[in-house]
Amino acid sequence: MHPTRAAVCLFAVLLAGCSSGATSAPTRSPSAAPSASANATANGHASAAKHFTYEGAEGPERWGDLDASWGACKTGRSQSPIDLTGAKGADLPNLQPAYGSSTWTLVNTGHGLQAVPAEGSTLSLAGATWSLKQFHLHTPSEHLVDNKAAAGELHLVHAGPDGRLLVVGVLLTQGTADNPAWSWLSGTLPTEPGAKGSAASALSPAILLPSSLAHETYLGSLTTPPCTEGVTWVVLEKPVALSASQLARVGAMSGDNARPVQPLNGRTLQEDSTP
Asked: Which end of the chain is less congested by CB atoms within 10 angstroms, N or C?
């Protein structure tokens, strides 16, 4: 579920949240979201006006009490992440990423590592086009599969022309060797909250995706305050494997930044049933 206030706040919060042994996640496609006032943010996670954490007095169970504008964290009925179990088969449209190469700006949001590519990368789905704004990492994974967490989760945050958000989630598992597509993790990363850096060379976010874009989809929320609802979630079924050392690099910056799963509350989880 990785994550900028009102307009910058929504994206900023997405980056905050995201561990171990995962199975592959089911597949599905997003449906139109009611309205995630997502004008809110395209940049990431770290900037909620109030401080929040992932444990203790400012942890997830208290987020809704920390700020009047964060009430959805406590009373929302369409919250994320969820346990990806019991998906219903559907004929879902294909994801069509058109991600360009650029030098990513890397940001330590204080809740994890966020990367901001240059403008121009898009994702098409069911006739709609969404612009990639940022991506960030969570450890362990925020979404579960059959009540099991993966080692981590990548969130690619997109905004539509109407300001709504679509987030593509990619589960990360531990493999036996370094993943070459993630070699940028071995570079100099911003280790202090608020610090920035950049990837050593121009890269396309497409290299971070698995070979299959089969997915599951549901309507949910940001996984960090203000927990705004109306976010279309697309979680890829096939995970991506990183080495233990690569996952350790991610974990060193993210810590345990995964929000606990939330009740489905009658929402429909769909997966692609097309052969």
From this structure: C
Report which of 237, 260, 11 is spatially closest to residue 142, judged by C-alpha positions. Answer: 260
CA–CA distance, 230 with 121 (Å, rounded to integer): 22
Which residue out of 2, 45, 51, 111 is catalytically annotated?
A: 111
Q: Could you give the 3-state DSSP secondary structure of residue 270?
A: strand
What the block records as the tokens of 37 is 């006032």
Placement of tokens 């592959």 in the chain: 24
The residue range of the domain holding 167 is 5-272
User: What is the per-residue burial (b if ≥16 Cβ within 10 Å, else e) of 216-237?
Assistant: bbbbbbbbbbbbbbbbbbbbbb
Comparison of pLDDT for 25 and 203, the residue scoring more: 203
Active-site residue, 215 included? no
Report pLDDT for 175: 97
Band of pLDDT at residue 200, cut at 50, 70 and 90: confident
Cα separation, 192 vs 233, whole angstroms: 30
- Alpha helices (H) in 8-58, listed in sequence order: 10-14
Q: State the residue for tokens 């990423």.
A: 97
Number of domains present in the structure of the chain? 1
* CATH of residue 162: 3.10.200.10
For the full predicted model, state whether its pTM sits above 0.70: yes
- Output 14 or 70, whichever has higher pLDDT: 70
Residues 246 and 179: beta-carbon distance below 8 Å: yes
The pLDDT assigned to 275 comes to 63
